[in-house]
Amino acid sequence: MTQIFQTNFAAGEIAPSVQGREDIAKYASGARRIHNMLVDFHGGVFNRSGFGFVKQVKAAADGPSGSGARVRLIPFQFNTLQTYILEFGDRYMRVFKDGGIVLEPAIAVTGAGNGDPLLVSAAGHGYSDGDEVFVADLIGMDELNSRFFTIANVTLNSFELVGADGTLLGIYGGGGTVSRVFVMALPYRADELALLKFVQSADTMFFVHQDHPPATLTRTDHHVWQYAESRFAPSIDFPTGVTAAKALAGTDTFRYRVTAVKGETLEESLPGLEIPSTIATVTNTDPVRVTSAGPLLVREGEEVHIENVTGMTQINGRRFRAANVNVASNIFDLEGEDGTGYPAGIGGDLARSFAAEIDATLESANPITLNWNPPTGLLPGEAVDHYVVYREDNGIFGLIGTTEKTSYTDANILTVLGDTPPKARNPFRAQGKFPGAVGLHEQRAVYGNSFDEPQKTFMSQSADFRNFSVSQPTKDDDAVTFSIFSRAVNEVRHYVSLGELLILTSGGVWRISGDKGVITPASIDRKPQTFEGASHIPPILTGNVVLYVEEGTDTVRDLGFDLQSNGFTGNDLTQLAPHIFERAGIVDWAYAKNPSRIVWVVLDNGNLATLTFVREQNVFAWATASTDGAVESIATIREGREDIVYAVIKRRINGTERRYIERLRERRFAAVEDAFIVDSGLSYNNPIDIATVTGTPGVVTVETKIPHGMIDGDPVDLDAIRSGRVGPGETDPTPLLNGKRFVVGDAALTSFTLRDRNGGASIDGAGLVPVLPGGVVRLPVDTLHGFGHLEGETVAILADGKVMPPQTVTDGKITVGTLASRIHAGLAYTAELETLPPSMEGAWGLPKSVNTVWLRLEANRGLFVGRRGDDPNATLSPVERRSTEPWDRPVEMVTGLRKVNINSGWDADEGVVIRQTDPVPAKILGAIARVDVGR
0.85 cut: is pTM over it? Predict the structure, then answer.
């Protein structure tokens, strides 16, 4: 007999094609199969927590009832407290926070009828047909409370709740509110969401897609969001009303430009404008042609600003270079602007980008004096640091001085032609130029991969993500433009800031740096790092390493800086588990760093793969997972102490296809009663905080912090009560009260006494030690409502830590089978670990038999163990359970070594299966198998 020790499973699943490599170190810590279990980076495996039901996706106007169109989840995190999951659907966005959907502020209900459908009165509600509302606190109509309804037949002060039959309800007794689900319109179709790229800075998220102008999404409150196309211009407006006064008449023409410099950031505005004429018409040609309503004062190549055009609004608020100027016909073209897709325009203002022009004699004794007004649109707290004045010299505007005042005197000051004003620039002005990749690096926004220029990158001015202005000659903080020149046209897919700028293209990864590590227009160094290109799936940044999916192969690679090679290198992280991706490609993924450092990967067959990744410990362990449905999108966000996984799951419920947003529950829990190991599930757990517990002869009184809502005779459970130090002759109330069920007596608004649940006698509180602050009471129930999303399905149930018989959802409710105050119910799933064939020298091909397995466990319930391939209902053996718990308490979780005798058999490829089918926790740290070898 030989003992095979497996101290951990840190290598994860090992593919069949690799199982002949018993010589590699990771074989000893691998497994043949890890399904619905996760690899802990310390080496153990544990069954995943379940997906709790959150909300059905918004119904598509042209889709099957209840199914909705395909959606994508996007995380938005301002700080550790203000975190959201955004549901991007077909031209809309909804918001989720802390496991619930975000609502608009509540509106008071003033009436509710008893018709079918039920009519709700709410003065000036502002809602529309098809909106979804949440109903709360209606008196006399409890069946409607805490439910969502679609509304119809909206009037100014009323609307109907679709599906609510008021004839079956009681009479409305007053009060109550309705809150509309927050929904915001977006321009993106469902089939465009996969290629939507984004990056976030503070409360602003930047979005790009090759078929849409770049845009921003900003948040100012949970329900206050704004989406807008990006305006690429300095954040400070230019000075207005610039005038020039001469001391001496003359025939020389002098032209000036004046800019404002923003306080703190020292960002420079575009030059002020002079409005010489108005616009008559604008034609939708390529290029756009403008006809002036009066004498045309625009010169060839001059920068002009267009405003207030009716019809062709796409050109409003922008600056262009004038081309093909025809003064006689009062026409000119907007250089590079293709207007064939625009409507024709009429009217508007035409301005030149210099602020003042004057014919005069300029000399030190006869200066020209400029005056102007400060920029408009300064926000509270913003200020102008100073102004910069430029004068034209041989067609170039050069610096002549700065001032903190709103006036300047030019006494024929020398022009510095090496310092010129910024020029307006929007590289993304039209279809074909919209970028398909976006990032942030060195306080610059980074855009690239337009349809016309897939290899070109544009970086904004330093410290201003919207400003792509440039000067001539260039300045270090000007916008930067460069291209990657490779043998093939490999489009830019992603930008990653990792000390230096990494550009992930379809054909490789490039490292971009500058002089002394700073990128400037005059200092750009491009170096290829690897020629394994990246797919469109966004890369994951963890520590100082990038994870990305290789283009066309579904290979996951890491990329980090290597001191020896002085460059970025990486590895194929799927080399030990290629079987997971042989018939299923990667469509989405998300990283949950805390607590288990796991990458959740969505496959195109609807299943999941997980990667536990800790590069410094050489841990990259794969496992698989599935649910009764198909996972389509996934995202993670920090909520409290953990990174929480949200998923879009398409399920077939009672024969109908539906898409649900579900949230993977936290895996940390103190007691088995809190374990959530079901999918699409819901929980019942409504603890009420205790203010005090007092014991006097013949009675124990409980005081709650809020009204408890219970009446005499209700059952009640107590938990988490702590006591002070117990002295001689005193009684510790902790074992008397915690985990016990009583009956409510003498119920008042915030207090009640405890009675024995069997005979109803009062509990004697004589001699009880005073209870410390803390503790909760719960009202147990035996029926749960709210399961309409699983109508007709069979659900598993864990009630107060006890596994109950499965039940079928009927009319949105289930019967638990017992009174319980902590209940979790949902779709069941099986977790399974299967070991590799024993690694034994000289034993290949020989029959082997495993008859005993020792398991090192942590917090386990309900495991079964057997030979590989055995029928779990027939031959798997249960892990021994303790037998010391009180009869009315749940079976405690097992920690430590447990021996399991299993049905033996003979197989040349023998292995051990460890399976969990109940909705309770399981964690396996290691295993020892006793193996007999035949001849």
Answer: yes
